[in-house]
Amino acid sequence: MFGKMFSCVILLMLVGFVKALPYQDTARLVKGKITGTDGAPIASASVIEKNTSNGTLTLIDGTFSIMPKSENATLVISAVGYANKEVQLTKEPFYLITLDATNNNLNEVVVIGYGTKRKVDLTGSVSTISTKDIENRPITQTSQALAGLTTGVTVSQGSGQPGNNGAGITIRGIGSYGAGGGPLILVDGLATSINDVDPNNIASISVLKDAASASIYGSRAANGVILIETKRGRAGKMQVNYSGYAGWQKATELADFVPAWQYATLRNEANKNMGGSATYTEEEIQKFKDQSDPDNYPDVAHYKDLLTSGSGFQSSHNVTFLGGNAMNRYVFSASYLTQDGIVTQNGYKRYNFMFNEDSKLTDNLTLKVSINGYTAKQHSPRQYDGGMNSMINFAVREGPVYAGEKSDGTYGYQDNYSPEAWLASGAFYQGSNNYFLGGAELIWKPFTGFSISGKAGYNFWSYYNKDYAADFQFDPNKYVGPNNLSVTSGQGEQLTLQSIATYNKVIGAHSFELLGGISEERYNDRFLTGYRKDFPTALLYELNAGGATGMTNGGSASEWSMRSYFSRFNYSYKDKYLFEANIRADGTSRFPSDGRWGYFPSFSAGWRLSEESFIKDHISWIDNLKIRGSWGKLGNQNIGTYPYQNIISLGQNYSLGGTLVSGAATTRLSNAAITWESTTTKDLGMDLDVLNGKFGLVVDLFDKNTTGVLYTVATSSVLGLGTSPVNVGSVKNTGFEAALTYRQSFGDLQIGLSPNFSYTKNRITSLANGLKEDIGSGLFVGQPIGIIYGYVADGLFVDDKDIASYATQPYSAEPGMERYKDISGPDGVPDGKVDATYDRTIIGNTVPKYTYGLTFNANYKGFDLYVLAQGLGGYEKQIGSYAAFAFYNGGQIQQWQVDNRWTEENPDPRAAYPKLTSLNMGSGAILTSTYWNRDASFLRIKSIQLGYTLPTTFVEKAKFSKVRLYFSGQNLFSWNHFYKGWDPEMGMSTGDNSQFYPLTSVYTFGINASF
Amino acid sequence: MLLLITIVGCNKDYFDKQPLDSISDATFWKTEKDANLALIGCYNIGAGWTGETFWMPRSLLYLDLMAGFGSEKELIPDHVTDGTVTPSYGEISAYWSNSYNKIERCNNFLDHIGTIPMEETTRGMMSSEVRTIRAYELFNMALYYGAVPMPTHLLTVDEANTISRTPQKDVWDFCEKELNDSYDSLPNTRTSDEKGRITKGAALAILGRVQMAEKKWAAAAATYKKIIDLGVYEIDQKGYHQLFMQVGEDSKEIILAAQFQEDTYSHVMLQYLYPEAFGGWHQFSPYNELVQTFECTDGKTIDKSPLYNVDAPYDNRDPRLDYTIMINGRTKFEGQTFVSTPNSSSPDKMNKYNWSGYCINKFMDSTFSGNLMNYGGNFSIIRYAEVLLSYLESKMEAGDPISQSLLDQTINAVRGRASVNMPPVTATDAATLRPIIRRERTVEFAFEGLHYYDILRWGIAASELNRQFTGMKLTNNPSTYKDFPVDANGFFIYQKRNFVAGKNELWPIPQSERDINPNLTQNAGY
């Protein structure tokens, strides 16, 4: 209905003007310099002519120039961390203005949905991240930047692979077990992916956590919203900033696999334990030990060799030009990033550019243009039937007794795997991406308090990826081939059109603000794939060079569209009582017409107690005290593009008479009634600043209820079909967040300390009607999302007598194998038999309950130190397959498995590893159980930066305004109780094909220079 | 002049987005073309690395390993019958879910085919094909799992999550009826562009399997007689070995085969099967017990034949032994000898893995030079040899008198084919003939996926699978040999299977299914 009402709205903004206004050449130019009480220049301070919109920002050396419109103008100077100051202009041409540090940030302006607001006026829960916390860190993907910096945000980086090492971000707990859980990311107001913005270009990051702040983004805001604004120009002479660094990466942790002779000895032990005979003779073990015949009795650390084969060199350079005048301001930024992997032949290169321009076309008409983009290239080695990360997985498996390159030039291998051989084969992956995001916004302010804007955004991306699987002759026996090439090329675009009108009015002590807007987004993407084999030489890598026999192609496309109407109303009385209401209506193509429109309202209110006379007049040490509360509803629609339509899949082919014949089959039973997930959030918060900004505290309590969770009801495979999700589940997240800031100066020493802590309790409040558990998906009512379900291991069996006297096990138990507990039985009591139905239980939780972080910074004269610690806590993880189990499917063995393992001589029921055997997926010793659970909590020194700013007098001789040198380290140390050699933060599945790339530490030296 | 126009679209279909690469349900099931697409969808079995189904070559081979013909390197099929299988075992749920996926496609097809305007004979033939595919799946499901859910139409989610198990006998009765209803409307042969589709002979041969499993001997004999009387099949005389290579896939002996094609619809079994020396993974290790089942060239078993020499145990044996098993120092492939001598430098040396020292030679395709993971050769599911041997067995078990001419038309035609040339069988009494027929089936169909079915219906699974298995010959002086454990004849003491009688005859119902559907009971002992 709402949709129909507005189904044909045309907003036409037609503004014409003949030529831009000439510069005012009659006014005089006023110049000045702004410093702190210590004499240090203050950059980016705002200088505004009082009661006008005429203003500028100071340059990095604290200087500014402005053309006042009236003779007796007053300049209002404000800067973050300093008290505002008003300066009455005289006839002087130059003003030296000193600001008093206040330490409080009450005037800080934060970016919110479709606007900005003073922090003190916020009634919702918004966290901001300053560029200081991002600058100069060797962050290659912006998503990594958020870790540890703010409450309510859980950041976990799963991989260290160059170009593919972004982090996962969860805001205030996982709100769904059906739809996607990522936050909505907007860069300069346009929806995109967080890693598509260059960290060098970020001016501010706001995280909208509660419904009051996020509901203006409606159906995509349930998992929080992250608003990123890029840098903008400022009036003044052109300033050039350079920042660059170079450094090296290495794996944070590497598993310690035993050498060949020990492998052989232990292999014999495992054989013996299984009643088999020795694989290796004493002579052979001796040859492994003395390495007298390394071709036949090698000792090769395939895993470690592979993960130290690359240089790990990383370097980044950015040049930013900014400047402008009263009419036009610009910023142009160009960056180059190169990152070589810790694996050889692996690397990533990216060129970013950004151009932002703000033009005052007339007194009341402003044009804002934001353009940024990048081109990136990624390359990595590969093996015949898998990429680099699969190669790493099989290097975990391949024991030291398999040779690498032998003296005759042939290669050792296990099955078709050998990192040395595939690195030599010429097989590779090459990916290239191009990305463009451009937006233009025209803002018209026809009369005081009213503004109307129209914005068009266009996002285009394309990629072209090549996988060349070389053929390879390992040795006279082993050939893998033929060579082949797969190419995937695709592109997509998203168009955003948006119009917003705002109106502000102050009537006495009452101030009102009203915002209304409409927006529309259209998305489409498409791709093509091609495959050929039998390339004549290993040097031709284009499809046409391949043989025509057996070539295949493929391709597809998808599209969706959204239309939205939104509005916000603010009211405040004497800056004391604050009220805000939002509503958004979203229509989407993803849902059938009945459930297509969703409505997302929110209300919030704040009370600044510190403005009440009983505090203001009596308690002088309180700068600011505000309590705020909010309620609102948000939606989530991240569930694929056509979920409500029954799909007949093509490509269900069969070969008849030597020809492939086309077939089709229904592959999914659809849910025609699918609609939004809906999240209701309540938030209660308090902001407190005391002692002139020395201490700040922000506390929030929240309660987030998601209903209509899109849940694919566990269906028996007897159905024979996939099913699509239905809106039946619900999830509750409740939590507590606190962030403290402390700032203090001791003479020349200034320090700052900001700890933050978040706790989220997540639980599933319902699954499908009456369903209490879905074991296959690990979902249980009353339990958090992401639990581990399995047996409780009561240590290991000591001997046969122990087995006989214990409950019957669900596998053929042996001494030295897990003793699973008999928890219950058909009658609700232990029945002497351990089985899957009655004796498995919830044994762990894989989603962190606690997130915490701490930033510390100190400045002393020219020196600065920055430390960021980050931790995740309250969760468990398992690793599996080759990484966790010795000799699994022909795999190798790690030192921790050897130390304190169960042996007949030392039948320790609490041994860290069971009796050595060769394991495989059917082994009873590796059923999911507490035995393999480990606490995955960790505390990490995420970043350290030590810098020195050269004395101004010194650098000015070389025409620089500022030069700073620094050392920085990322992911330096971590404390955890996880499996030795495996970083708990790293993303690994427990399956046999667990592809991963270790997380890396990065050590860099860098320089910042301005001139 | 600057003009900014923001138009919020006036088009009514702004939100009407359809999938761009698949057909939405509303537009399907309208024409004969749709019916053809859906029919092929019922045949589709995935390809490449697709998991266990009763159509994939590797899966069928696995069944014979489970039935005691050998071991797999990671013991994946071994676990099913070595006494350790649990309801959570992935292989068990793989056969289950892939079968029901196929059954669903057939049901969906049969639910819709009636309303599509098309010629009745075409509709009848297509329905019969699909009903035959469904019967093959249901028969196998009931064979291995016992009572199983038997959906005969497209289920709803609620139905699927609450369906009960239908007793094995009822499932088989249903299959028998379906196949009896179907075979007549199927063609005797297929044109070359339809080669691979179900024929009358294929439907009848599946029917015969069902009837033999149900011990309906007379009915089974009559069914097999129908196939023989079709006159379209014959025992291949070109060479037993090449029957299992790509060059042999047009043989008139093949009644039903899973169809593959290099590059576009290939399978990976050869990568698993080939010894390492020939670029494979040497995933399978035949047991010596199978090796010893092959007769000597005089038609006598090794314990009776004067031609058997325990010091040269592979000489003077049924030629199918060499066609079926790779033997250390003996078998040549593309001019190179297979070596598995322990502690040797061979990549296939017996003690490198938990190997028996033998490898599979059947299916090794010397005419193929491509990627072993991209093999396009078909895999026989039913051969005419089975029809002849099953016919004889049914006649015998039915108590019909067995004549020499019947023997010559059946078992002797199979074992007497050119390239095998084993002496004719002359025994006509059931007691003597029974073990001969069973042995003939064992050696003739080794690794083709039939042996599990045979030992279940013969009732010998427990005795076959609860014993010590041996591997290659290691020494002629077992009393002094110390390197590896050997039996009295110098064969490597290899693996033991601990099949639990009364339990392991049926696979467990997958735990993941019972977690969802409380009406699924579990088989005894699990």
What are the salient characteristics of this protein?
heterodimer; A: mainly beta; 13 helices; 55 strands; B: two-stranded antiparallel ribbon; 12 strands; 39% helix; globular
Indicate the structural class of chain B: mainly alpha
Oligomer: heterodimer
- Give the strand content of chain A: over 45%
Largest sheet of chain B: 2 strands, antiparallel
- Spans where pLDDT lies below 50 across 5 or more residues of chain B: 1-10
What Rg of chain A, in angstroms, do the CA atoms define? Answer: 32 Å
Number of strands of chain B: 12
Distance between the termini of chain A: 58 Å
Largest sheet of chain A, in brief, is:
22 strands, antiparallel, barrel
C-alpha termini separation of chain B: 81 Å
Number of helices of chain B: 19
Would you tell me the overall average pLDDT of chain A? 89
Helix content of chain A: under 10%
Largest interface: A-B, 113 and 113 residues
Helix content of chain B: 25-40%
Strand order of the largest sheet of chain B: 3-5
Shape assignment of chain B = globular
Number of strands of chain A: 55
